[in-house]
UniProtKB/TrEMBL annotation:
Name this polypeptide is given: FAD-dependent oxidoreductase
InterPro entries named among the record's database cross-references: FAD/NAD-bd_sf (IPR036188), HdrA-like (IPR039650)
Source organism superkingdom: Bacteria
Molecular function GO terms recorded: 4 iron, 4 sulfur cluster binding; metal ion binding; oxidoreductase activity
Keyword Disulfide bond: no
Keyword Glycosyltransferase applies: no
Keyword terms, alphabetized: 4Fe-4S, Iron, Iron-sulfur, Metal-binding, Oxidoreductase
Organism: Caldanaerobacter subterraneus subsp. pacificus DSM 12653
A family per Pfam: FAD_oxidored
Length: 452
C-alpha cells in the first residue's frame, strides 16, 4: 500500500511527541506508559471509550499466561489490582487475577491516561499516513470536525489491524500462510438476571468439575469434545431449538461487579475467514445477532438459572482474533514457541498455548510443560521500512500459528508498555527508534516491576 498523496490542504493540529492510534488493549497501555515517561502524547480512538477488544468486543476475562504467578507488566498489574480493589475485578481460585468487568475497565483506562497527562481524541478514525522518506510526518484522521492532519514525532500503531503500518507501506501478512484465511470472528454478548447459584448447581449436576467457584462461573461446549453440556445441546438440536453451528464453539463467564451477568465468548460466525472484508464483517453482525437470539432462547428453555434472563447487550465491535500482522525486524515463529526462545530484548513472556479458532490447523507444536515459556523480543514491535513507528498488540510481527498464542490481553498489554517506554525514550534522548536498545527497554520495564 503506497502512502497517501495529500491533494488538498487539511487543517493541522499541534505536533505531539507520541501519537498512539487505537485506544484498545495495547494502545491504552502504550499511551499510559509514554505519558508516564513525560512524553506529550495523543491517543486516537474511533469509539467513545477505551479498551478496544476488551471492552467494545466484551472479551472478558483476560487469559492466564500459564506461568506460575501469572506474571505481568507493571501497568497491567496496576490495572488488575485496581479493578479488584474497586470490586470490578477478581482472582480465580486457579490464580487468574485477570477477571474483569468490561464496562468499568473503560473508566479505569481513561482515568489512568488522563492522570499521566495524556490527551485523548475520541470518535476519531485514522484514515491514512503521510510518509516522507520512510518517516510518518503526520496522519490523516476524520471526526466531527471533518478531515484533518495531525503531526507527531513517533507513532504507535495499536489498531489491531496494523492499519497505520499498512497505509504507511510496511509489508504485512494476512491470515494463514497456507490459505490466507484469518481465524474465525465472534460476536460476543452479555445476558443479565441469571441465577448464578442455580446455574452452578445445574452444571455440577451435569458432571462439570471445573470453573464452578461462585460467583466466578464458567461454562463451555464444543461438539464431540466430551463437555457435560453436550447432551443438553443435543436435545435442543433434536427439538429444532438450536442449529449445529450454534454449538461449534460455546463458552461463557460470569463478570465481577455485575451480579447475575454471564458474558458469552460466542457465537463464532461460520464461514467468515476474512476479517478485513467489510461485507463479510457486516454479514457477521447480522448472522451473529440471529445466532444470539437462538442461543438465548435455548438458554432460557434448557439451562437452569436463565429462566428470567434477558439479553443485556451485544458487543458493539465484532471480535477479531487476527487480521493483519506486520513484517518486523524480528518475526516470531513457531520455532520460538518450540525452542522456548528467550531474548536479551525480551519485553514479555508467556506460556499461553497455540489457540486457533476456525478452519486452519496451524503448525506442529511441542506443548509447553510447567515452568517453560518463551519471550517476545522488542524487535517484533519494530516494522520494516518506516523509522518512526512501533506496532503493539495482536498485529506485531509473527506468523499465523504463533500469533494465536501471543494475542491474549496480558501479552498485548506488555507490548503496549514496552512501545510507550521506547517511544518516549527516543524522544527524550533525541534518537531514532531504531537506535533504541531493546535491552534498555527491558531494564526500564523491570525497574517498574515487570516480571521479566
Ligand atoms: C472473540 C475473542 C475472544 C478472545 N478471548 C480472549 C480471552 O478470553 N482472554 C484474553 O486475554 N484474550 C482473548 N482474546 C484476544 C484479545 O482480546 C485480543 O487479541 C486483544 O484484546 C487485542 O488487543 P489489541 O490492542 O491488539 O487490539 P484492540 O483491543 O482491538 O484495539 C484496537 C483499537 O484500535 C481502534 N481502532 C482500530 N482501527 C482504528 C482506526 N482506523 N482509527 C481509530 N481507531 C481505530 C479500535 O477501536 C480499538 O480500540 C480474544 C479475542 C477475541 C476476538
Amino acid at each position: 500500500m503506497s502512502s497517501y498523496i495529500v491533494t488538498r490542504e487539511y487543517p493541522r493540529r499541534e505536533e505531539y511527541d507520541v501519537i498512539v492510534v487505537g485506544g484498545g488493549t495495547a494502545g491504552s497501555i502504550a499511551a499510559i506508559a509514554a505519558a508516564r515517561e513525560g512524553a506529550k502524547i495523543l491517543l486516537i480512538e474511533k469509539y467513545g471509550f477505551l479498551g478496544g477488544t476488551a471492552t467494545a468486543s466484551q472479551v472478558t476475562p483476560m487469559m492466564h499466561v500459564k506461568i506460575e504467578g501469572n506474571p505481568a507488566s507493571s501497568i497491567d498489574r496496576k490495572i488488575r489490582k485496581h479493578m479488584i480493589e474497586l470490586g470490578f475485578g477478581a482472582k480465580s481460585p486457579g490464580g487468574n487475577d485477570g477477571w474483569f468487568n468490561p464496562e468499568m475497565l473503560k473508566f479505569v483506562l481513561e482515568e489512568m491516561v488522563l492522570e499521566q497527562g495524556g490527551e485523548i481524541l475520541y470518535d476519531t478514525q485514522f484514515v491514512d499516513a503521510i510518509v516522507l522518506e520512510n518517516e510518518i510526518s503526520g496522519i490523516i484522521v476524520h471526526n466531527r470536525e471533518g478531515t484533518k492532519v495531525i503531526e507527531g514525532k513517533i507513532f504507535i500503531d495499536a489498531t489491531g489491524d496494523a492499519e497505520v503500518s499498512y497505509r504507511a507501506g510496511v509489508p504485512c501478512f494476512v491470515g494463514s500462510e497456507k490459505s490466507g484465511k484469518n481465524q474465525a470472528v465472534s460476536l460476543r454478548f452479555m445476558v443479565g438476571n441469571v441465577d448464578l447459584k442455580r446455574l452452578e448447581t445445574f452444571l455440577k449436576d451435569l458432571g462439570q468439575e471445573w470453573g464452578l467457584n461462585y460467583p466466578l462461573i464458567e461454562m463451555a461446549m464444543i461438539w464431540n469434545k466430551g463437555f457435560p453440556l453436550e447432551k443438553v445441546f443435543k436435545k435442543a438440536l433434536e427439538d429444532g431449538v438450536l442449529e449445529y453451528d450454534d454449538g461449534r464453539y460455546f463458552q461463557a463467564f460470569s463478570v465481577p461487579g455485575m451480579p447475575g451477568v454471564m458474558s458469552f465468548n460466542c457465537p463464532e460466525i461460520p464461514d467468515v475467514y476474512n476479517s478485513l472484508d467489510g461485507a463479510k464483517i457486516s454479514y457477521s453482525y447480522i448472522k451473529g445477532r440471529k445466532m444470539i437470539k437462538r442461543l438465548h432462547n435455548f438458554l432460557r428453555k434448557y439451562v437452569a438459572g436463565f429462566e428470567d434472563s434477558f439479553i443485556l447487550s451485544v458487543a458493539p465491535m465484532i471480535g477479531i482474533r487476527e487480521s493483519r500482522r506486520i513484517k518486523g525486524e524480528y518475526i516470531l515463529t513457531i520455532e520460538d514457541y518450540n525452542n522456548r526462545s528467550k531474548f536479551d530484548d525480551g519485553i514479555a513472556k508467556t506460556a499461553y498455548p497455540v489457540d486457533i479458532h476456525g478452519e486452519e490447523e496451524g503448525e506442529e507444536v511441542i506443548p509447553l510443560r510447567p515452568g517453560e515459556y518463551f519471550e517476545i523480543p522488542f524487535r517484533a514491535l519494530i516494522p520494516q521500512n518506516i523509522h518512526n513507528l512501533l506496532v503493539v498488540g495482536r498485529a506485531i510481527s509473527s506468523t499465523f500459528t504463533m500469533q494465536s498464542s501471543i494475542r491474549i490481553q496480558p501479552t498485548c498489554r506488555a507490548t503496549g508498555e514496552a512501545a510507550g517506554i521506547a517511544a518516549a525514550y527516543a524522544v527524550k534522548n533525541n534518537i531514532g527508534l531504531r537506535d533504541v536498545d531493546g535491552k534498555i527497554i527491558r531494564e526500564i520495564m523491570r525497574n517498574y516491576g515487570a516480571d521479566l
